[in-house]
Design goal:
single chain; alpha+beta; Alpha-Beta Plaits; Molybdopterin biosynthesis moea protein, domain 2; 2 domains; seven-stranded antiparallel β-sheet; three-stranded antiparallel β-sheet; 7 helices
Length: 243
């Protein structure tokens, strides 16, 4: 008798990690953090990079907790209305969770967080869609920093290259990008290959809440980085620290 499909065992690594139970876990985790930490801040991110966000989590794990991802899930945890919130004025914080932003629960004071966010930045490589901050022109001649095996890839990106005696060579000067113009994905890849970063990873603290004074806004609702649509699930859907 053939084996029933219902008896088939499925590895947990292949199951959907973003199911209803997982989302409920996030909501409960947000509520626990409301009880644990005296201060909550909403931050927006400029030039988001997962590795840099992970570094931030490691740097602040002793006294803080980061949530970044699906806004609607975090809003439920905070409470979307006065009737849903578990602390006064938390629904005001919830309503500011729009665009590419996250939650920071912390024991640090408001001034400590504002000063820290102002001074925190990291240089990163630009992606397609970013405006070039300078004009980059590569002169004709050998490019000995590249292995010969990468030459076909460089040509595919649009660079006028050829191999001369096994050395990658530009047979004419090449303008990678022009200041103020939007980068294509190919231009962004070339800038990364030639080690030319043009972007900065930065945090902006939009607003905050504490158990003593309630909600406080630091920038207007239409200021800062409000780009991004959180209606669809993606790979960044609510990332958390391991406690």
């Amino acid at each position: 008798m053939p084996r029933s499909r219902r008896d088939k065992k499925i590895s947990l690594t292949k199951t959907d990690r973003k199911g209803l139970a997982w989302k409920q876990l996030i909501i409960e985790d947000v509520k626990r953090c409301i009880e644990k930490y005296p201060n909550i801040f909403i931050f927006s991110v400029e030039n988001m990079r997962n590795n840099l966000l992970k570094d931030l989590r490691q740097e602040t794990k002793k006294d803080s907790r980061f949530f970044f991802g699906k806004n609607r899930i975090m809003q439920i945890g905070l409470g979307r209305t006065e009737a849903e919130e578990i602390e006064p004025q938390l629904h005001k914080l919830s309503n500011r969770l729009t665009g590419q932003c996250g939650l920071l629960f912390t024991e640090r004071s408001k001034q400590e967080i504002l000063d820290w966010a102002k001074d925190y930045w990291a240089v990163e490589y630009a992606r397609g869609g970013f405006k070039a901050t300078e004009t980059v022109i590569l002169p004709a001649g050998p490019m000995e920093e590249f292995a010969h095996s990468i030459e076909p890839h460089l040509r595919k990106l649009g660079m006028p290259t050829k191999l001369e005696k096994g050395i990658v060579t530009l047979f004419k000067s090449y303008t990678v990008c022009e200041e103020g113009k939007v980068l294509t994905p190919e231009q962004a890849r070339i800038l990364k290959l030639i080690a030319k970063p043009m972007a900065e990873f930065r945090l902006t603290i939009k607003c905050g809440w504490n158990k003593k004074d309630g909600f406080e806004s630091y920038i207007s609702e239409d200021s800062g980085n409000e780009e991004g649509d959180d209606d669809e699930d993606d790979e960044n859907d609510v990332e958390m620290d391991d406690e």
